[in-house]
User: What shape does this take?
Amino acid sequence: MTETRLENTCVFGLSWGDEGKGKIVDLLSPHFDIVVRYNGGANAGHTVCVGSEKYALHLLPTGVLQESAVGVIGPGVVVDPLGVMEEMDGLAVRGIDVAPKLKISERAHLVMPYHKVEDRLSERALSGDTRIGTTSRGIGPCYADKMRRTSAIRFADLLYEDGLADRVQSIVAGKKAYFQAAFGDDEGLAAKDVLAVIDKARDRLGAFVADTTDYLNSAERLGQRILFEGANGLMLDIDHGTYPFVTSSSTGPHGIGAGAGVPGSVLRYRIGVAKAYSTRVGAGPFVTELADATGDRIREAGHEYGTTTGRPRRCGWFDAVACGYAVRISDATHVSLMHLDTLSGFSEVGVCVAYRIGSETIRAFPGACSRLERAEPVVEMMPGWDEGLRSVRVFEDLPASTRAYIDRIESLVGAPVAIVGVGPDRSQTLVREPLKRLIPVPESTLT
Ligand code: IMP
Assistant: This one.
């Protein structure tokens, strides 16, 4: 039977985050009734351009920018309540009221001020090459408390736990003692400040707290369509990424069961997003990194500076070894290849097809960071293209060398490139069959 509409879809990063997922979610979300964040926290940063307006969202599902979609923050997300309020206020100033269509899982954990203190102190205490380079948003410490099960606070606790204030006093006392013993500092952490955040969260966010698991499963059974919005990227996945230089959650479609409470079997499409080259923020192995003028050129052409922290991103050629691995473990049905326009003007463009470690040449992605650190990329250079791509609107109008580059990536990673990004605007997105007939060509929002 020919499909006439987009069915349940997950959009997720195939690399180290910052792949341009926000733009794809923004493109797809008009076709969905519900958009769900299921992992990560305010470490993610989705920039969406609508006309001359640029929105940077960290916690709110990007789909809330669409009038009709309900935005859900699932149980697997760690939520900085002040961050959510700030984003809501920022959108309100621009005339977007997300309140009527936001739901936060009662099972989601709150990032508390002591998580941010711990993130900063523990990073500072690590020496140069063991430092993870976190976003300092308290993500790792919050997930660690969730697993430890003794000092975590969930949205349900804000609403239903008698004696929460006493528990907070005792958590903070314990944290202060630990921070002083481990780091000789507690940054002046005080229970009254933590309680103030909790009270504010209850007042402003309490109305959005819901059993989102029940809501999503019922909605799915009734035929509503759901878009799952992955944060970070598969190379940062807690189990499958470049551990320990990773984030603390399950970033791919495999995170949906745990992080949204909806079985992964409801998914029809798994769209993995990658850039036409590679970037990484923070520490950790990065085999195709170009720590030279070519890397600098990619960074400047692609404005590769972090949405969340403003840090310059490390840049390098496309890594088909890492991306092929990410495609396999996520079972990506399609790849969305972003930022093709950034590579215009390069006489040659590189694709890493294998790694060399000593005398060995491998195509499987190694699990040990020490091996990744020693790996040399085997790079295939291909003819580049001089043409600017930003006015191209149909895939077939791309220069032949750009199409050959895309074909090569497709055959190396093992999934069809169904979407291509040629600029920041919604309209600068080329969609190929089979998705093309389900997604009308997006209208330009450029003025
Ligand atoms: P954390 O998630 O703040 O604990 O940071 C762990 C690692 O993941 C650091 O290297 C961060 O720079 C990186 N990271 C986390 N989220 C993102 C993201 O959305 N984009 C890029 N890097 C990220």
User: Anything to note?
Assistant: The mean pLDDT is 94.
